[in-house]
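Z., the sequence and structure:
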Amino acid sequence: MKFMANDNGPKVVDFPGPFYGDLPPDYILEHAQNAKLVDVVVIGRKPNGKYFLGTSTADAYKINWMIDKIKADLMSGCYPGLTGPEPDDATE
């Protein structure tokens, strides 16, 4: 999907290829709610430049492993819009 802006406000348009651009945080969070996730780590940057970290687990080792796994996949090009296969194929 591609996020576009027009005179009537934002519009989501189906796009068959990878997406190369930013999406609003609310759009990503909405799709995460429907993804049936088991564990969640949310990392974000606030308007004042400070970072936010929220997790569904209190296990620091699990949080660190999840961040390192995603970081390794990201650096390997395993995400659509950046390059590589779909995340479900890359993070098993």
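The longest strand covers residues 2-6. The helical segments are 25-33, 60-75, 87-90.

Let me know what you think.
H.
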